[in-house]
Amino acid sequence: MKTKALVSMLLVLAVVFAGCAGPDLKKDAEADDKTKLAGEYMARARQQESQGDLVEALESYKLALTVDPADATAQAKQAEVEKKLNLLAAESYKQGANCSAWANTPKPGKSF
Q1: Which of 61, 86, 98, 100 supports an S-S bond with 78, CB 3.0-4.6 Å?
Q2: Residues 67 and 37 sit within 8 Å (Cβ to Cβ)
Q3: Which fold has domain 29-95?
Q4: Distance of CA 35 to CAs 6, 31, 39, 41, 65, Å?
Q5: What gap in Å lies between CA 19 and CA 9, rounded to an integer?
């Protein structure tokens, strides 16, 4: 009888102590998972950026920031890639506006 009571008491204590330690261990594991995931997104973004895939790199930086919004490196790289893409878009627009193929087309509202 004493053995059953002792085993039951030890079991209750084990459950109580396991319940107390559980949330901290979970938080640490979740933080490690988030850090690892953000690192994977950052590595992918750097690789995409080095290959010239700026749109894909931007998406990867955004995903890294989704996991870790306070990551200053990801924030800076996102801003840098957005600036590069805006410059490329402006350059492309200027080239299109100055395209000689369009220079000989009639203006809107003019007769042919």
Answers
A1: 61
A2: yes
A3: 1.25.40
A4: 43, 6, 6, 10, 11
A5: 15
3-state secondary structure 34-97: HHHHHHHHHHHHHHHHHCCCHHHHHHHHHHHHHHCCCCHHHHHHHHHHHHHHHHHHHHHHHHHH
Cα distance between residue 93 and residue 86, in whole Å = 10
pTM of the model: 0.63
pLDDT tens digits for range 56-88: 999 999 999 999 999 999 999 999 999 999 999
pLDDT band at 3 (very low <50, low <70, confident <90, very high): confident
Calpha distance 21→40 (Å, rounded) = 29
